[in-house]
# Entry
Amino acid sequence: MLKEAREWFKAHPDVKGGIEGTTTSVRDYVETFYTAGATQVLLEIEEGAGLTIPTSMRVVLPDDKAARGRCIRIEEEIDNFTGGGGEAYDAGQKYLLVGFD
# Structure
């Protein structure tokens, strides 16, 4: 299920999850994307076995070219930390999918 990230973290203040390979929390990356100009940041939430955890992010990209570039560079940084290592680029996509592992 997709939830707006800031709202979800307000409702779940004790969740401290990180992104594999980094010391930066998911919550911090949400703010980093918004600061870079993201229109919206959504979390994919998984529930089960008594846990409710974010497993990935969907970052809605703005129309502004410079802001899109900043968001794409952040996604590329995360991808490098998690071992994806692929080069991100602007292909006119509406959003970025960011995995946490």
Remarks:
- The first strand starts at residue 2 and ends at 4.
- The radius of gyration is 13 Å.
- Residues 2-99 form one domain.
- Strands lie at 2-4, 40-48, 51-60, 95-99.
